[in-house]
Amino acid sequence: SRVTDVMNVTSDAPGANDNASGVALVLEAARLLSQRQFDATIVYAVFSGEEQGLWGAELLADTAKARGWQVSAMLNNDIVGNTVGQGGVRVADKVRVFSEGIRASEDLVAQQGRRAEGGEDDGPSRALAKAIDGIARDIPGGLDVMIDRRPDRFGRGGDHEPFLKLGYPAVRFSVAAENWDRQHQDLRTEKGVVYGDTIEGMDFPYLAKVTAINVATLSRIASAPAAPEDVSIAGALSRDTTVKWTAVPGAAGYRVRWRRNDVQRWAETRDVTGTGTVLTQVPVDDNFVGVSALSATGAESLVSFAGRDRRPTR
Length: 314
Description:
It is built from 7 helices and 13 strands. By secondary structure, it is of the alpha+beta class.
């Protein structure tokens, strides 16, 4: 954490919520999931140098790129342990999950292509946020996930950004009601107001619920194959939509999802074993389509949004 001056290395900066809450979450997730075996590798990381320029996160993102890791998801948990926000407002039933729409890794031409296909709300980061929302709904007594449709809080950032810039699916978890008197403050009391990020501001049962969502998400993604690539649709001037994609190593099957293009959640599904299908009486003009990969046990990858076929002809 830090106090008021980001370069102050002498004053006490407890950092109970920003970001010991995230560190505690990572350690607990590692404790629970280390008792299980997964096909994928889960990397548990705690970053340094965030306030000085996202240095630790940038190092890991660059390492993943240099080593050719296939990153299915990056979950950044930053300020995830309080329920009493600024002015005493209390929100104990929600957690925000921030995700990008237009991708930071795409150049202008790719962004224009996504806009033309209607994929602004279905990039990998947004697909991850939607998956988290669905997973959280199945946790009894858990939290409501608010899918915050911007990369981070307004005008602010975090350790998931270097991963987004390199094209990896990444999101940020953060509490529903921040208390800025307990962020980036010198420890003091002024006019009866307590400043500083101390343990008194923590809500540990709430933190446990955020942790549960992370653990369930990691478990599903680490159990599933990678998300399909090269997912395409065709069907102009037709009542039917043809869907194709590239085979995923280790996939036992695939789930084709579609919805009318005036809604945000997938509405219909079809499970198949091949790498293509035809959706009869599903006009391409009026529907969005996505495809996920399934393991033999039914674990589902993130959904890859279908666009125009850009694979070179042979």
